[in-house]
Structure formats: C-alpha cells, structure tokens
Specification:
By secondary structure, the protein is α/β, with parallel strands linked by helices. 31% of the residues lie in helices and 26% in strands. The chain is built from 11 helices and 16 strands. The longest helix has 17 residues.
C-alpha cells in the first residue's frame, strides 16, 4: 500500500526532494485547479524523477470557479453571492472558469468543494444568485456540485482532450495513472484509454451513477477510486464503507485491478494539529480494506504537509 499525495502545481524540485526524504514515492496533480500549462509542467517535473509514480486527475464536468485575488474568500450564512460566467471573482461575485451555470434551477442545493453549502435563489440578467446556507469559504478553482440534479457524465470534454495533447508533446516515463473524474459510465474510461493508451486508467467513482454502473466501468478500467468527498453528499458513512468493501472485492476478483481510497484524511490536522487523532480511526477503518493506494487530497496544500506525510508514511510501513 502506498499513500498518493496531492501536490501543488507549483511544487519545486526542492519540495519534491523533501517528499522523497520523508518516504513518499507517489504523487497526484489535479488538473481541475490552475492552468493546463502549470499542471503539465508539474507532472513533467514529477514524472522525470527516478523511483516515483506520477498520477493526474482529469477535471471532469464539475463547474469550477476562477481565481480570487487573495486565493479565497469567507462568506457568512445567509449572504448572497452572484454566480456569473467569465467574470472576475470577488467577494460578491463568483465566476465560472470552465463551465456554464445554465443547468441550475431556482431552489437547487449546491455543494462547494470547500464545504460551503449554497442554494440557488434567483436567476438574474447577470447570472445566478446563490445564498450561503452556512458559514464557510470559497477558494480559487473551487468546484460546485448540484446535489439535487447531478449531471451524468458520459464523455470527455474538450479541455481534457487538450490535456492529453499537451502531455503527449513530452514523454513522461513515470506517468503511471490517469484518473478521469466523474466516471459515470463505461464510455468515460474507454475514451480516456484512447487518449492515454500507455497509462493505467483509474476511474473515479463520485456519484450514484458511477455506483450503479460500477461493473461496466471497472471492465473498461485498470482500477477504480472510492471518492469519499463527493459520495458523502449521497451516502452516509456506513453506506460508503460498504461501497468501499464492494469496490475492493470487485478489484480483487479481477487480476491486476487497482483499488484506491481518496479522501481528506487528516482534515482536522489542517485546522488544529492536536485534533489529528480524530481522523485516525476513520483512516484505520479504510486501511483494513487493503487499497493499493490511499489518496491524500487537499490536505497536502496545508502548511503542515510535512507532518502529514510523516504520519502517513508511518502507516504505509505497517
């Protein structure tokens, strides 16, 4: 078992050296955040190193915000936020940088990747007016997810085809895995394999559509990823664990299939180092499923990332 660490697209050779010193050898770059060129260069820096594995996430169909001037903004419960296409992000206005909000309807519940809950209050000439349902924040390239009417993804986007074309310009000898987000149907990994014929295709299961179509998706993939973040919008924790058991059994039943658990383990650690113990029982529970990889998500952006990696590597050696 290995821990798969999300690294910033700006990760330098010195940062990667420090990861290696801590025992890390598997890295993931999320193409949903930042520019294509920044992320491609990061993958190339990782993939040219000896003794490491590089993975990348294709961004999928999740609408994402553009960049905030200060990286993130805080919002209070009840506050109104205007969602536009192509505008600059500010405190009062969010802009979508990769998608359109036309699929929203008044009353839809929207979950942001940051944990902020929103509801669509009105359609205006400028865009959609949202209301914050709790105190929270939004950050640059934060994703939105329509809980009431999730979009079923059956094909790759033009953005993802551009990612493939860019990476093919320079061979990445240690680029091991391609992880298509929102693999809701077998067409998604099938099309991904056409773009990346030399890499393992590891489909991310993030919605009830993906759960329903798991056998056919796995049949077109080299493995699957249990994405606890978005799945938690639809399944209680115990249901999610049972789903993890099912996915692990399905992967073990087919020789060579890879099972990955993706999650924000150590999320308490990011806020308060003393509270890290709260996450450990959940981590140990999922380690018992014997995944080949455990993906450490956005906590790798934490200033405490070295301590997180150190703790994870302790578990990797057990």
């Amino acid at each position: 078992m290995k821990f798969l660490y999300t690294v910033k697209r700006t990760a330098t050779a010195e940062v990667l050296d420090r990861y290696a010193q801590l025992g890390a050898s598997a890295f993931r770059v999320n193409f949903g955040r930042g520019s294509l060129e920044e992320n491609a260069q990061c993958v190339e820096r990782i993939a040219q190193r000896e003794g490491v594995e590089a993975f990348l996430d294709l961004p999928g169909c999740k609408p994402r915000l553009g960049a905030y001037p200060n990286g993130r903004e805080a919002y209070a419960k009840g506050e109104a936020i205007l969602l536009e296409d192509g505008a600059a992000c500010s405190h009062a206005v969010c802009s979508l940088c990769n998608d359109t909000s036309e699929g929203y309807a008044v009353g839809d519940a929207i979950a942001a990747s940051s944990g902020l809950k929103l509801r669509v209050r009105a359609r205006t000439p400028r865009g959609w007016e949202l209301t914050a349902q709790n105190d929270g924040d939004l950050y640059s390239y934060c994703g939105f997810f329509n809980i009431d009417r999730p979009r079923k993804r059956t094909a790759l986007s033009e953005q993802e085809r551009q990612i493939a074309a860019r990476l093919h310009r320079k061979a990445c000898k240690n680029l091991v895995g391609i992880c298509p987000s929102f693999a809701d149907a077998a067409q998604v990994p099938r099309e991904t394999r056409r773009l990346f014929p030399e890499q393992k295709i590891l489909s991310k299961i993030e919605t009830p559509y993906g759960v329903e179509n798991l056998p056919s998706i796995l049949g077109e993939s080299d493995g699957v990823m249990l994405c606890r973040g978005d799945l938690s919008l639809f399944y209680a924790e115990e249901e999610m664990y049972r789903l993890g058991e099912r996915m692990a059994r399905a992967c073990r039943a087919e020789a060579g299939k890879i099972f990955i658990v993706a999650t924000d383990f150590f999320s308490h650690f990011v806020q308060d180092e003393r509270a890290m113990e709260a996450d450990l029982p959940v981590l140990e529970k999922y380690l018992a499923l014997r995944p080949e990889y455990v993906l450490i998500n956005e906590t790798s952006y934490s200033p405490r990332w070295e301590k997180i990696v150190g703790k994870c590597q302790e578990y990797a050696g057990l």
